Each structure stands twice: as C-alpha cells, then as structure tokens.
Amino acid sequence: MQCTNYMMENDEETRRLIVKTDVEQVKQQALWAGIKPGMRLVDVGCGPGITTHVLNQLVQPGGSSLGFDLSPKRAAYGNEHYACETLRFEQRDALTPIEDFGQFDFAWIRFVLEYHYQNSFEIVKNVDKIVKPGGTLCLIDLDYNCLTHFGHTPRMERALVQIMNNIERRANFDAYVGRKLYAYLYDLGYEDIDVKVGAHHTIFGALKDSDDFNWTKKVEVAARAFYDFSEFPGGFEEFRDEFQAFFADPRRFTYTPIISCRGRKPLS
Fold it and tell me: Which ranges carry the Methyltransferase type domain (predicted)?
C-alpha cells in the first residue's frame, strides 16, 4: 500500500509546518533519544525540512542526514532552503522500498504516524529495515489529538469529537497513535526501550500568532471537510467563528499529550 492522500494539503501547508515547529523542543527530544555527532540520520516524513536541518546540526561534526517526504513540493523546499554538504532531501513514500538509502545509525519518525491509522506499523517496519543493528529508532507522536479543550460549548465539544471520528474513518487519521508507539518497538524486538510522556501545544492565556495560524488552518482544511455542522444554523462559518472566539479567549485551556519512544535495534 502506498500513501496517496494527505488531509492537510493546502497552499499554505509548508508555511504551517514551519511555523508550528518548536526548534528547542526538537533538540531536547533528539538529545533524549540519544542523537550524537558522527551519526548517519534519516528523518522520515520530513516535511519542508526544518526539523531535519536541526537534527543535522546535532550530528555534526562528522555526521550526515537524509530527509524524505511523500510531497515532492516539500522535498524540493528542503533542498532549496536547507540542503548542504551533509544534508539532502528526497521525495519518497515511506510505505515503498527504501533500502536503497542504505543503513542509518538514527531514524526519526515524528508527527507522521498519526496520518496512517491503518498502516502506521507498516511504516515503522519498513523503516526498521534501514536502521543499523545497534542503531536507534525514535518514534514521536500525539495522543488524544485535538480533543482536549476547556472553555468551549457543549455543541463545540460534540462537533470536535465527531470531526475526529470522521477523520479516522474517511482520512486514515489516528488521533490515538501515541499510545501505540511503545508496542511497535517492543514487537520489533528493540532493546533498551524508553518512553517519555509530556504535553504538546499547551495553550493558555494570550494566544500566540503561531498557534492562531496553526489551529486556524486545522479548522479551515481538516474540520471543514469532515463534518456537516448540523448543530450550527450558520454552517461551517458559524462553527469557525465560535471556535476562533473560544480559541482567542485567554481563559481557554488546550493541550495534547505527546509520547516519545526510543529503542535500540538488537545487534543480532
């Protein structure tokens, strides 16, 4: 099976992916996972390449990095803006053969598996083939994605739950993939597995421009396509206006659990 659709695709998706990337968080996650200078690294589902660029800095001196993504537009963006002697980008489907890339000391899959409800483990098994014996595989994703808010109306709560249910059925999206990551590494026989659970996009008080843009795009692109808004007499526009008013209110509280798993591939 190949990945053919990406539900968040829109003209501003490259910008959204860059704006929402927390560089310091990426560094902390990678250091926790055991990234070191001199490693050969692969970033699976690298998007526009900003995260790969950060990871590549952490494997210097002496290391090298490859980022690959399903989108030719974003692979090209990475090569235009971040490629250098030690870093390159390719367009490739993570569910197709990737052994020609060679072997890597460190493989990174972050915020990718959530888009593959039916085949996320197939992606992990495919990436496992290019991890060197003794190498590290790091899986990072969200759990209970987009579902934990306080301060909105009961109809907004019902709408958000139904939107996420519809996205799972119709767009292969997994709002609960984070809880599965440990089992994926366990089932593949990885050793020294460790897990870290935290909070992602914890939003309270004044709304940051980056969070406003990120969540506005989520509503405009994903929510709009997967719900009939029957509880909202004004349709999608009324839903959007109510969500934006809720989100702009400094009283509101929003967060999503983030789960990070790392493991070492057995030497034998």
Answer: 42-138
How far apart CA 149 and CA 108 sit, in angstroms, is 29
Give the contacts of 204 (CB within 8 A, at least 6 positions apart): 250, 252, 253, 254
Q: pTM score, two decimals?
A: 0.95
User: Is 226 in a helix, a strand, or coil?
Assistant: coil
- The one-digit pLDDT tens for each residue of the chain (268 residues) are 444 578 888 889 999 999 999 999 999 999 999 999 999 999 999 999 999 999 999 999 999 999 999 999 999 999 999 999 999 999 999 999 999 999 999 999 999 999 999 999 999 999 999 999 999 999 999 999 999 999 999 999 999 999 999 999 999 999 999 999 999 999 999 999 999 999 998 999 999 999 999 999 999 988 898 999 999 999 999 999 999 999 999 999 999 999 999 999 999 8
Per DSSP, 20 falls in state T
Strands 64-69 and 87-91: parallel
| Largest distance between two CA atoms of the chain | 62
Residue 4's identity, in one-letter code, is: T
List all residues 6 or more positions away from 28 whose beta carbon is below 8 Å from its beta carbon. none
Q: Could you tell me the domains of the chain?
A: 13-146+173-203+256-264 (3.40.50.150)
Q: Which residues touch 243 (CB under 8 Å, ≥6 apart)?
A: 152, 156, 219
